[in-house]
User: Which sequence fits this backbone?
């Protein structure tokens, strides 16, 4: 069995690059692959193309030691980790095109006895599908003892470099040997327990973990709408209910974002459309929450316009899908800001996002949208919509006493209702 001395990590995004960097930190020779010139150039310069605490140091050290490099073409290696996107197509069906492209890109480099790991969050059967794509390219490899495994990431953006090391991992292998080889590779940096299973169970485990959270968030989001109708502070209510020893309600928000919780449950629904009823309902509740927020802004805008006789200025605070990062994937905050720009064509929409330096593509080309600092937005705004509870916004609550405020995160609540 071939000893794993070099690893090619295909896809240097929010999971692939940290994985490559942590492997290099632990002495493994890592060859990164990405389609983006910007990403490849950044890594080879020892820098990072996105915000993730501590990642820059790992990348810089890996490059300096000669253990980490990047290119746009897939090299020969002893093991391959595929960490590419798995978006939607045709509504909510999973698009495996990036996985297929990665498989075709690595197939010419295989000689036999390599380990190929799919890390991308995927529907059941995706690892088997990746193997079949490789075998279609190289039929002779069916007899070459290739090992395939699925090892889903389970890290929290903002804590990736910590949780890669400390969290337990699930490794699903096409065979016992494949699972054990993948386990041994991840053991070079993972201090948590590594649990072995088959590929389909490993794929479903990641989907189930995120679907569980999605269902819980949907309960909180539905509760927030009910409480708004009833004149109840939902955050106080949840805080009180969570004092029950067996209750742990999550926090509501403007929707659910990121490439995991907002996406993964649909993969289960697609696999079992007739039976995944609760999971579908949760997705629909969370996907519908942004429109509810927009409706609250519309109502506030009507009141302001009636009182002042002019179109209101709207400040939208936050674009990322969660606090203190620059990740905009599937962000409800970004979608809300874009929708507000279209709905309020006569109003200025002032966007505040401290973790980006330019308007994202979804907001570019809209004449009434500007990316500004928080002070400028709050000075000018009639309506303030808090969409992301970035730490930078925590102390701004006192600045909005004379504004119409839609606080979707409860960051500025002052305490009990008494």
Assistant:
């Amino acid at each position: 069995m071939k000893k794993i001395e070099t690893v090619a990590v295909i896809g240097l995004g929010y999971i692939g690059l940290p994985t490559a960097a942590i492997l290099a930190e632990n002495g493994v020779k890592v060859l990164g692959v990405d389609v983006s010139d910007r990403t490849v150039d950044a890594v080879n310069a020892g820098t990072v193309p996105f915000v993730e605490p501590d990642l820059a140091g790992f990348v810089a050290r890996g490059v300096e030691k000669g253990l980490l490099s990047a290119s746009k073409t897939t090299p020969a290696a002893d093991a391959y980790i595929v960490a590419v996107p798995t978006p939607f197509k045709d509504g909510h069906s999973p698009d495996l095109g990036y996985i297929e492209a990665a498989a075709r890109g690595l197939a010419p480099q295989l000689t036999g006895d390599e380990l190929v790991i799919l890390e991308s969050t995927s529907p059941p059967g995706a690892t088997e599908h990746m193997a079949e794509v490789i075998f279609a390219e190289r039929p002779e490899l069916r007899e070459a003892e290739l090992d395939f495994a699925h090892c889903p990431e389970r890290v929290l953006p903002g804590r990736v470099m910590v949780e890669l090391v400390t969290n337990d991992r699930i490794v699903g292998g096409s065979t016992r040997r494949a699972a054990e080889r993948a386990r041994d590779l991840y053991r070079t940096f993972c201090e948590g327990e590594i649990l072995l299973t088959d590929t389909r169970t490993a794929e479903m485990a990641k989907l189930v973990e995120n679907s569980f959270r999605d269902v819980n968030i949907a309960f909180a989001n539905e509760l927030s709408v009910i409480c708004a109708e009833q004149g109840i502070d939902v955050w106080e209510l949840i805080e009180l209910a969570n004092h029950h020893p067996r209750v742990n309600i999550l926090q509501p928000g403007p929707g659910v974002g990121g490439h995991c919780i907002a996406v993964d449950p649909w993969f289960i629904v697609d696999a079992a459309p007739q039976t995944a009823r609760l999971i579908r309902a949760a997705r629909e509740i969370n996907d519908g929450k942004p429109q509810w927020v927009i409706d609250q802004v519309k109502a506030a805008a009507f009141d302001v316009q009636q009182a002042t006789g002019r179109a209101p200025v709207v400040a939208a605070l936050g674009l990322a899908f969660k606090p203190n990062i620059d990740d905009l994937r599937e962000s409800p905050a970004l979608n809300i800001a874009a929708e507000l720009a279209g709905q309020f064509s006569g109003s200025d929409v002032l966007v505040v996002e401290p973790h980006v330096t330019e308007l994202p593509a979804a907001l570019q080309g809209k004449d009434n949208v500007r990316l500004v600092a928080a002070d400028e937005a709050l000075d000018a705004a009639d309506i303030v919509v808090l969409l992301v509870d970035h730490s930078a916004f925590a102390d701004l609550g006192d600045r909005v006493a004379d504004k119409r405020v839609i606080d979707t995160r409860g960051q500025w609540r002052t305490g009990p209702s008494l």
Remarks:
- The first helix runs from residue 16 to 25.
- Residues 6-192 form a domain with the Rossmann fold fold (CATH 3.40.50.720).
- The first strand starts at residue 6 and ends at 10.
- The chain has two domains: 6-192, 210-407.
